[in-house]
Amino acid sequence: MIVVLKPAAEQRDIDAFIGMLKAQGLGIHESRGVGHTIIGLVGDTARINEDSLRAYHIVDNVMRVQAPYKMANRAFHPEDTVIAVGTAEPGCEPVRIGGGSATLIAGPCSIESEEQLTGIAQAVKAAGARILRGGAFKPRTSPYSFQGLGKQGLEMLLAAKKLTGLPVVTELMAVSQLELFDDVDIIQIGARNMQNFDLLKEVGGCKKPILLKRGLASTVKELLMSAEYIMAAGNENVILCERGIRSFDQYTRNTLDVSAIPFLKKESHLPVIVDPSHACGVSWMVPALAKAAVAAGADGIMTEVHNNPECALCDGEQSLTPDEFAELAAVLARYAAVEGRSI
Amino acid sequence: MIVVLKPAAEQRDIDAFIGMLKAQGLGIHESRGVGHTIIGLVGDTARINEDSLRAYHIVDNVMRVQAPYKMANRAFHPEDTVIAVGTAEPGCEPVRIGGGSATLIAGPCSIESEEQLTGIAQAVKAAGARILRGGAFKPRTSPYSFQGLGKQGLEMLLAAKKLTGLPVVTELMAVSQLELFDDVDIIQIGARNMQNFDLLKEVGGCKKPILLKRGLASTVKELLMSAEYIMAAGNENVILCERGIRSFDQYTRNTLDVSAIPFLKKESHLPVIVDPSHACGVSWMVPALAKAAVAAGADGIMTEVHNNPECALCDGEQSLTPDEFAELAAVLARYAAVEGRSI
Amino acid sequence: MIVVLKPAAEQRDIDAFIGMLKAQGLGIHESRGVGHTIIGLVGDTARINEDSLRAYHIVDNVMRVQAPYKMANRAFHPEDTVIAVGTAEPGCEPVRIGGGSATLIAGPCSIESEEQLTGIAQAVKAAGARILRGGAFKPRTSPYSFQGLGKQGLEMLLAAKKLTGLPVVTELMAVSQLELFDDVDIIQIGARNMQNFDLLKEVGGCKKPILLKRGLASTVKELLMSAEYIMAAGNENVILCERGIRSFDQYTRNTLDVSAIPFLKKESHLPVIVDPSHACGVSWMVPALAKAAVAAGADGIMTEVHNNPECALCDGEQSLTPDEFAELAAVLARYAAVEGRSI
Amino acid sequence: MIVVLKPAAEQRDIDAFIGMLKAQGLGIHESRGVGHTIIGLVGDTARINEDSLRAYHIVDNVMRVQAPYKMANRAFHPEDTVIAVGTAEPGCEPVRIGGGSATLIAGPCSIESEEQLTGIAQAVKAAGARILRGGAFKPRTSPYSFQGLGKQGLEMLLAAKKLTGLPVVTELMAVSQLELFDDVDIIQIGARNMQNFDLLKEVGGCKKPILLKRGLASTVKELLMSAEYIMAAGNENVILCERGIRSFDQYTRNTLDVSAIPFLKKESHLPVIVDPSHACGVSWMVPALAKAAVAAGADGIMTEVHNNPECALCDGEQSLTPDEFAELAAVLARYAAVEGRSI
What we know:
8-stranded parallel barrel, elongated
């Protein structure tokens, strides 16, 4: 970390400032230029908050040289993390996320009935999906909207898992629900909870893979810091998910930030998947975005599939039909193959 | 709600669509124009999700005529809600938020020690603050940053309350902490938890005033929907708080959305306060923004005050000193008086 | 266009409002529901400004049913527009943009010398580029930055065209420069001039292809309206270019809005190309974004290539070397081939 | 400017890099820390582009210490610039913008007729406006919208000036119109032209006051750089105008960035005015924003006033009536008086 002091800073204040930094265990490299004094901090600067340093009246500016995330940082963990899903489940073949393949995750936004879910599960499995998604606890903007089937929905999801052998991913909204997630293979932390730090610490205490969605207005660095929360609490099985951010242009529900894929893959060793359905919010655009995400290097694609989108209780307008999904899966396999990858 | 159907919509599909809407208890007014068929929905449309209607292949567009919030809506509750704080506490004089005054709330970002807190509390009280703020549980972007003193901090806050008679407001981050908040006068829901719907439902179950901060990238309508969650769960004592949003220009930490004040006051009967400290993130700008907020009609101003900003464990760079706060309070009183209000 | 009137609107005012609309040549379809009166406007509503209608005190809301662009609208021109570039130039083979291929455009950000430019031109041609780009007039944020070689740079560009046979594209910043552009094949209108309406009208008066870059904070609909300005002035040869938008996250210079590709292709018949270099601002990320753009359906990719990026007078940090470009072109050809396209 | 080199940078490359910097006339202060080498640049760094330095493969990061604007910078010009308007016009009393007063500028968005304009001009003058605004050349998103009366409108504006003695401000859209602006007192550069650098250079060549509007997605630093363009070309009479920026929340047309007022006043000596009409786009919200702007320290307020907003050819929904303006002017005078200012 580099701290530039103001030209007018007095020696007495500089000494006190340096003393404070040394007391925090940091090494100091001081350099006096013509105008400014520059202080380089050496050591574990992840604990140091830049804004706190800016509070000092002698400080002009602060620049971080090392990223504030450590466990999620590729600099300290050069190899890709590959996360094995469902290995311990009898009847489920292990699925690997990361390290070269573009894994397909599909299923309905909300679980509505056992019949609906198993029908979709069988269809997406046949088309090439390796993991089943489905929401039981649903975060909804309005208290008057359908809030998900809850525990009952979770049971339907586990029944579909048993029937098809597909590992499952579903969203956890509150710590109190965690005891119900024993047989869930991947716990999803939704975009609105990306900085629900108590929830992050809690899922850091289990060993299950965590699918961490980027918040609507979270920077990629904040996403990595939230991954760091989970990892620092003991769980290194984090899958990052780009799902669209808020921008000024609202012709799509959100703006898919496709650049996040190469950036996150470079900065971190964690797998990066993309959810094109929530990004754009309209089913006709999902294939174009899924292809773009695969071409940009995503480790997986998570899409919403519904047997009857017009009657979906949630997000029908962004769901593919099983036939549309099968067509998309086939073309994604061809895009993945361009650089030797598979779905 | 107005639904415009596509010109090519077939009668059979229109009939099925109308049947589906009637089955949800809605009245239907159908109108056939030259090109488009238009359907007006009459009844409780707050339950209807516009996007779900857009999933129908015969639907071209949907326009909401009535706002999706009801309890927070001024249309159904024309008078200003005035929230009494601290009335039941012996030794505390009741403070009223809303209905004409510009209440001052002040205190440190984080509670650091009993000595620090009581010193600040006495200073801000003398300067005109009516409510004491202080964080015990702190949401921090990094797991390596100071996370607040927790339960111990809360005890210090309650001691300061006892000493000064000032009602107190502090942030609740998780349902599990709620049992510690019995003597807290106002529960703050932070910006990052504005759409933590389980937490909203939980605080909807108590009767304490809730200070609900707008999320960094939440629309004013989403803020009102989150207020609606709390109100629908039984607690109508909600104070809305504008604290800056994310924009492309980052010369301030966030962008204070001053227009939110007149908009929220027009759309809702709930009090609206402003936090200029978090909005701009630098103490020298706080007075200008606080004055702007009062002039725009805010029901209160919440600022950070620290006796020694350079040594604050959190957000020192945006904290006023007690002297700066006293000066600001005096000038805010004069701005409030322009249109006959007081602080 | 659908206009919803307020429930309290009086008949006298409604009659006056309808009279005003009829006087503008619009057909009216009036429908009285239980609460609201709804007015459907039939005819050429492109001339009608929604906001003007909202000024009427009896108007509650306005919804546009037909897009405000006509000539750029695919609804009225279903086939893809294919733009032939350089056909009239002896020694240049015609290049077609649109209609299936993913044309590569490459060259330096700024033209610096004849030697530099011809070296790069030959290299990118050998690698597969079909059009040469190079800036002579440069829009720079600072008046103290290099502003381009101007007329002299343009002469170097035309010399490189003559030498290599590649058609050329370069930016026009002011009407007064237009007389110098006679032998330029494609005129680029830069992002900062997307709503310089006088410039748009002026290039609408010539027949050359216009490469219209999306403004940093322009919606896709505003981009189409700017294309409409050019087309309404008589020039239908417009190429749309997505080059990144401003968002709250600034880890890239701009945020590539990959969704704009399928949206613009659906809404309009005009070709859509992508500039990944300006979108991300760093050369290492250009290949990932270029691949994503091709997979999403872009009709072309425009990248910056410099023989010595470290010494570029402008935007060196986002320029590929000729070798990197050759490698990228080869892989883009394979991505384009997945769905039967070529570069 | 501080340049941090990568730990792996080799001495040979560092020497070449330093040689390149020295060749540009910069002084160098080199400092070798434990991990990184840091280079401080001394001299006129305004000409140096940070991104160009980032292109060097040995460079890790660059931090600017001095702002890239010089003439607009308060550091080099501590006193407020006060701009005298209309001094040379016989019959007009000189109006001063900056230095303590909150000058009111009012008039219609578009000039529609002589009768309309003179009526409004007399009304706003009586209410306290010191300068008359009115658009003759109108930048419109759609080519099919009313584009202003042009030269004829300008003549009406000058007639209204003669009649009322009010100095006038109107927008210049193209260099070719400049010859018509001889008797205009303040030339407005609109938001969409804030980075039309040729136009900026051109108005830098005259001595008239320039009202420079901030672009919809321009940072405050870019606004200052555009002012710098005008000043560097010889015209130091620049008035900065905040008029709302684009954000994700679109309940107002734009988001008034009230923080820009104190920031620009601190960074620059130029006057800062605010246009609340374009910021919010709805007349009922204009008074709240105008009051906020005055309280935050704005040197002036520019509002749209129309005698019959419902029939305005442009932006009627955001125009105040003359009576509403008179009421607002009276209350703004009281807000200005709080800290000893006048309108």
